[in-house]
Design brief:
With 425 residues, this protein is of the alpha+beta class. It contains 9 helices and 19 strands. Strand 14 and strand 15 form a beta hairpin.
Length: 425
């Protein structure tokens, strides 16, 4: 790794140590001893970081990436590159200031990020990303002339699909329930304060903490999606986004399992939507949605959404997708949302629609369907209804809710046949 890696790991440890010691420790031992404790912990963490850096390295052997680490217990992880789903270059704030980057790999069946290489120089991380994708079987559109070395350095040949305006991103997060209800929460807090005359420190702290928690998600989305740019490089998508932590994610198009379209309630007044990807073995497994390579369009109008969907799923028109609602007797199960639920078969994808306040549309290419299931609950059996599931390697897939039993079996058979035909093609 880069020689500055221990310094960056030590800086992160400093924040963790100070937070762990807390202000109660400072009040008990005084500032002098508190500073000594912090220095001792940080020094120990830095020494461990240096030892870890000295014993950590990577090696590309054939079609494997091998990561060596550990001092007392040596460990070598071998990652088959044919299982590679996505590669991203992440640059936290400290890495941006020092010209470094972190390389993260997502593989089939991985419960979390595999082999995070932290930290590398930006040029080295970019070159390694291109090399891994090339070895994995996704050759770049153009390469530099061959030189002395194990592999040519890819030259980016990108086509710009869309750039999100930061102004639209800010407005979209203002049109969320958290931001929309915040003035009412402030009014309630002010009314409580005026009625009681004074507040204790605990009451003020708890109120501020609750308000910060409400605003955390919109603020985090703005920071994560700031400067969002979507490019297409041959058969790959390249996503750039982030303000305090910049990310460059590369997702091979043939690894895309589903495309999800969402119309939040407050966004529909402006005709906006959001697009997300599902990548095999990754989106459902990662607990932190900031680490998921699933951002396709954080906010955009219908025309932009149709353009991006057509680039990711050739031949699919977002404004002309077929779907039909469940039979009228499904009102007993969905008295309000029956008209918003539906399913259909396009020439290229299986279409599933759901949601009443927040409308959702899921598009599954037939070649990505791994299995088809038909399920019935007790109420569905009495109403002669059934639900059809089209499962993908990414996890969630798509669901056709409350179809007529005979129609459900016909739909399952048709999905199976189309999936087999698409895979043969």
């Amino acid at each position: 790794m880069h020689p500055l890696s221990p310094a960056l790991h030590g800086a992160k440890s400093l924040v963790v140590v100070i937070a762990g010691l807390s202000w109660s420790t400072l009040s008990r031992v005084g500032f002098g001893w508190f500073a000594v404790l912090v220095a001792v912990f940080v020094l120990g963490a830095t020494v461990l970081s240096v030892i870890s850096w000295w014993n950590t390295g990577y090696h590309v052997v054939g079609r494997e990436l091998r990561v060596h680490e550990g001092l007392l217990w040596r460990r070598t992880r071998a990652i088959p590159l044919e299982r590679l789903q996505a590669v991203e270059v992440v640059r936290p704030l400290l890495a941006q200031l020092t010209g470094l980057a972190e390389l993260r790999l997502e593989v089939v069946g991985g419960g979390k990020t595999e082999a995070p290489l932290a930290y590398l120089g930006v040029a080295e991380a970019t070159a390694l990303r291109g090399r891994l994708l090339a070895v994995a079987g996704h050759p770049p559109a153009a390469t530099a002339p061959a030189a002395a070395g194990p592999a040519p350095v890819p030259l980016p040949v990108e086509h710009r699909l869309h750039t999100v305006r930061n102004q639209d991103l800010l407005v979209s997060q203002l049109l969320t329930p958290q931001a929309f209800l915040l003035p009412f929460g402030l009014a309630f807090v002010v009314a409580q304060f005026l009625s009681e005359g004074s507040w204790s420190f605990i009451a003020v702290a708890s109120t501020l903490t609750a308000m910060a928690g409400v605003l955390l998600q919109p603020v985090r989305r703005v920071l994560d999606d700031w400067g969002f740019r979507l490019d297409r490089d041959a058969d790959r998508l390249r996503v750039r986004n982030g303000l305090l932590e910049t990310r460059v994610q590369t997702v091979p198009l043939h690894r895309v399992q589903t495309v999800g379209v969402t119309w939040p309630l407050l966004w529909r007044t402006k005709g906006w939507l959001r697009l997300r990807l599902e990548v095999a073995g990754y989106s459902a497994a990662e607990p932190d949605d900031r680490n998921r390579p699933d951002r396709l369009l954080p906010v955009g109008d219908a025309g932009t959404g149709a353009l991006v969907v057509a680039a990711v799923l050739p031949g699919v028109r977002l404004d002309a997708l077929p779907w039909t609602p469940p039979p009228p007797r499904a009102r007993w199960l969905r008295p309000l949302s029956r008209a918003a639920v539906g399913a259909g078969l396009d020439a290229e994808v299986f279409v599933a629609r759901s949601g009443l306040l927040t409308r959702r549309l899921t598009l599954v290419p037939y070649a990505r369907i791994q299995s088809v299931r038909v399920t019935q609950g007790p109420a569905q059996r009495r109403l002669r209804l059934a639900t059809v599931h089209a499962d993908t390697a990414g996890g969630s897939g798509a669901v056709a809710l409350d179809r007529d039993v005979a129609e459900a079996w016909r739909l399952a058979a048709e999905l199976t046949a189309r999936a087999e035909l698409a895979r043969r093609r």
